[in-house]
TrEMBL record:
Organism name: Thermohalobacter berrensis
Keywords: ATP-binding, Nucleotide-binding, Transport
Protein name, per record: ABC transporter ATP-binding protein
Gene3D superfamilies: P-loop containing nucleotide triphosphate hydrolases (3.40.50.300)
Top-level taxonomy: Bacteria, Bacillati, Bacillota, Tissierellia, Tissierellales
GO terms assigned for molecular function: ATP binding; ATP hydrolysis activity
Amino acid sequence: MFHLKEVKYKDILNIENLIIPEYKVTCIVGESGSGKTTLLKLLNKIISYDSGEIYYKNKPLSQIDSIAHRRNVVMLPQSPAIFNGSIKDNLLIGLKFAEKPIVSDNKLTEILEFINLNKKLNENAQKLSGGEKQRLALGRILLLNPEVFLLDEPSSALDDETEEIIIKKLVEYTKSNNKTLIMVTHSKKVAKDFGDNIIEVKKGKIIN
Ligand SMILES: Nc1ncnc2c1ncn2[C@@H]1O[C@H](COP(=O)(O)OP(=O)(O)OP(=O)(O)O)[C@@H](O)[C@H]1O
C-alpha cells in the first residue's frame, strides 16, 4: 500500500526502505520524539519529504494531488479539534469539509454506539470529557469511509477497558471492510494484541 524508499525529512526522519501492507493493522511504536507523528504526516501529505520517494499503491505521492489523497487516506491527529456545537455538528463537519453527502441521524446514532459514546446527538460536544472527545473525533473520521486510517494515539485518553473495546472494534471494522489501519500507539499491549505488523521508530529510523 505504502512503500517508502530512501525517504528523508529534515534531520527528523531517515527511512531506507519501509513497506506498509494493505488491509492490515500496522502499529507504529517508539519513544517520544522518535518521529512517529512525522511519519503519519508524510503518509497523509501534510508535509513533504526532502528526498527519496513514497509510493501509495505504486504511484509516487509527489504525483498525487494532496486533496485527492486525503480523501482516501484520513488522519486522526493526537489532539483532534472539537468545534463549538452539538455532537451531531461535530460528526457531520468532516463530511461537510470533504464535500460528501450528509448522513441520516440513524447512521450517526450507529456511529455513537460504535465508539461507545452514550450521549444524545444534540448534546453540547464541548461538555464531553477528554476521552469522549477523542472517541467523537474517531467517529467523525469513520463517517468519511476512507481506504486508510492514520490514527495518532487514538486511545491515549481512554482507560484500559475502553481502549480494548474501541481498538478491538476498529480492528474488526478494518478487516471486515477491507480497510487499512495504521496506528501510532504507546501501548505495547495494543501493538502485540492487534498489530499484524509492528514498526518501531527510533531517532528517526526504523529499527525492526
Ligand atoms: N515542524 C517541526 N519542525 C521542527 N521539528 C519538529 C517539527 N515537528 C516535529 N519536530 C521534531 O521532530 C521530532 C519527532 O517529532 P514527532 O512528533 O514525529 O515525534 P513522536 O514520535 O510522534 O513523539 P510523541 O510520541 O511524543 O508524540 C521531535 O524531536 C520534534 O521536536
